[in-house]
C-alpha cells in the first residue's frame, strides 16, 4: 500500500504535488495549533493564591429592572471577599434606577450612579463614570444578566488581583435556552475565548470580551481610556484592555469557580454583532497577533476543501487523507471535552464540535457578504 502512495506521488503532475504539499502543510499547522495552543489551554491549571485583594464590579445597564431584581441581590450576598458593585444607569426608561437606589440603602457593597440623558456612545461614557467612581484599584465588568456563578467566583478572581498582574482573565458565556441562535452564539463565543486563551498561554495575549476580565484601574486611565476610540462600534473595554495587556502581567483562570453565565435571549442579530465585534477588535491588536489570527482562520477554512480536491485529483491517497482527518477529529474531541469538563460546560460538547466543522465556512461567508456593507457603514473588513 505504501508503494502505491509513493508511485501515485512520484508519477503525479505538478498540480498533484502542489495539492499534496498544501494539504500536508495545512495538516501540520492544524496539529501544531492543537498541541501548542488548544491542548495547552485544556491542561492549564491556575495556582491557588493565599492572599486576596479588593475588587470593584462595574455594571452598566439600561432598562434592566427585572434582571436587577433577579440577579443583583445574589451578587451582593457574596460575603467571602472585599468587593463593591458600581452600577451606572445608562438613561433607563423603566424603574431600574429607582430599584438600584432602594437596594443601595440596604447594602454597603452597592454604589449607584446615573447618566441623565441619552447620548451617542453613552455606554462607554457610563463605563468611564463607573471607573472613576470605583473605590478599589481593580475593576471587572459584569452584566446585569449574570445569573449563574459559584459562591467563590469573586473571591477566586480577587485573590489574583493581589498578585503581580495587570489583567486576570476568566471564562464567561450565556446559559443555554434551546434556540438555534443561542446555541450558535454559545459555540462562537466559546471558540473566540478559546483562541484568546491559547494566545495568552503562548505569550501573545489578547482578550475577546470585556466580561469577567479583571484589570487594574490605573492602567485604563494611564492610556487615556477610550481616547479617540469612543466612536468604535461593537467593541468596548476589551479594546482598551488589549492596549495595555502584557504577556508577563496576565493571569488565566479556567475553572467553573471563576466562570459566570448570563441569562439572556439572543437572536440572529446578536450572533452577527458578535462576529462584527471580533472583526473590529482585531484592528486594535498588535500586528503579530493579527496576522497569526488571519493565518489560523485561512488554514481552518482551506483544510477540508484541500482534502476534497486532493481526493479528486489523486484518489489513491484517500485512505491516507481519511486517517489524517480522523486523527484531527479525535484530538479535537479530546481537547474540547477536557476543557468543557473543567468549566462545567458539558452540554456544549457535541454541539460545539459539530458546529465547529462549519464555523470557518460560516464566518468566511459572513465576511464576504458583510465586508462591503461594513465599509459603507464605517467598520472595516479585517480579512
CATH class of the largest domain: Alpha Beta
Binned, the helix content reads 55-70%
Supply the helix-strand structural class.
Answer: alpha/beta
**Main sheet?**
7 strands, mixed
Q: Unreliable stretches, pLDDT < 50, 5 or more residues?
A: 372-383
Q: How many beta-strand runs?
A: 10
Beta-strand residue percentage? 5-15%
**CATH topology assignment of the largest domain:** Spore Coat Polysaccharide Biosynthesis Protein SpsA, Chain A
Shape: elongated
CATH architecture term of the largest domain: Alpha-Beta Complex
User: Mean of residue pLDDT?
Assistant: 87
Explained architecture:
With 383 residues, the protein is α/β, with parallel strands linked by helices. It has helices at 2-10, 14-43, 65-76, 96-104, 122-133, 153-161, 180-201, 217-222, 237-244, 268-282, 287-313, 318-342, 349-377; strands spanning 54-61, 82-90, 110-115, 138-141, 146-149, 167-170, 172-174, 213-216, 250-253, 260-262. Strands 3-2-1-4-8-6-9 form a seven-stranded mixed sheet, with helices on both faces. A three-stranded mixed sheet has the order 5-10-7. Strand 2 (82-90), helix 4 and strand 3 (110-115) form a beta-alpha-beta unit. The longest helix has 30 residues, at 14-43. Residues 372-383 have low confidence and may be disordered.
Amino acid at each position: 500500500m505504501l508503494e502505491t502512495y509513493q508511485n501515485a506521488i512520484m508519477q503525479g503532475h505538478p498540480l498533484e504535488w502542489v495539492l499534496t504539499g498544501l494539504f500536508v502543510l495545512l495538516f501540520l499547522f492544524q496539529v501544531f495549533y492543537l498541541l501548542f495552543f488548544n491542548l495547552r489551554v485544556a491542561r492549564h491549571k491556575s495556582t491557588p493564591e493565599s492572599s486576596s485583594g479588593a475588587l470593584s464590579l462595574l455594571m452598566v445597564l439600561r432598562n434592566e429592572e427585572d434582571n436587577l431584581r433577579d440577579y443583583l441581590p445574589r451578587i451582593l450576598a457574596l460575603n467571602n471577599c472585599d468587593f463593591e458593585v458600581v452600577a451606572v444607569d445608562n438613561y433607563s426608561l423603566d424603574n431600574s434606577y429607582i430599584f438600584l437606589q432602594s437596594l443601595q440603602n440596604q447594602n454597603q457593597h452597592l454604589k449607584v450612579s446615573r447618566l441623565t440623558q441619552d447620548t451617542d456612545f453613552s455606554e462607554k461614557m457610563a463605563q468611564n463614570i463607573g471607573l472613576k467612581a470605583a473605590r478599589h484599584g481593580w475593576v471587572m465588568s459584569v452584566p446585569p444578566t449574570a445569573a449563574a456563578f459559584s459562591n467563590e467566583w469573586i473571591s477566586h478572581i480577587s485573590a489574583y488581583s493581589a498578585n503581580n498582574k495587570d489583567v486576570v482573565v476568566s471564562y464567561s458565556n450565556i446559559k443555554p435556552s434551546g434556540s438555534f441562535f443561542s446555541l450558535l452564539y454559545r459555540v462562537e463565543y466559546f471558540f473566540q475565548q478559546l483562541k484568546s486563551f491559547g494566545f495568552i498561554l503562548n505569550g501573545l495575549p489578547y482578550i475577546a470580551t470585556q466580561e469577567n476580565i479583571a484589570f487594574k484601574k490605573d492602567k485604563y486611565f494611564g492610556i487615556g481610556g477610550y481616547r479617540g476610540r469612543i466612536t468604535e462600534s461593537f467593541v468596548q473595554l476589551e479594546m482598551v484592555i488589549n492596549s495595555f495587556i502584557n504577556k508577563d502581567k496576565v493571569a488565566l483562570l479556567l475553572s467553573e469557580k471563576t466562570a459566570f453565565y448570563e441569562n439572556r435571549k439572543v437572536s440572529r442579530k446578536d450572533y452577527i454583532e458578535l462576529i462584527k465585534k471580533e472583526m473590529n477588535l482585531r484592528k486594535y491588536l498588535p500586528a503579530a497577533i493579527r496576522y497569526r489570527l488571519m493565518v489560523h482562520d485561512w488554514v481552518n477554512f482551506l483544510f477540508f476543501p484541500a482534502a476534497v480536491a486532493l481526493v479528486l485529483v489523486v484518489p489513491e491517497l484517500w485512505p491516507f487523507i481519511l486517517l489524517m482527518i480522523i486523527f484531527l477529529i479525535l484530538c479535537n474531541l479530546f481537547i474540547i471535552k477536557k476543557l468543557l469538563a473543567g468549566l462545567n460546560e458539558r452540554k456544549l460538547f457535541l454541539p460545539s464540535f459539530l458546529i465547529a466543522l462549519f464555523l470557518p465556512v460560516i464566518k468566511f461567508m459572513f465576511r464576504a457578504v458583510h465586508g462591503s456593507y461594513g465599509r459603507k457603514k464605517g467598520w472595516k473588513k479585517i480579512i
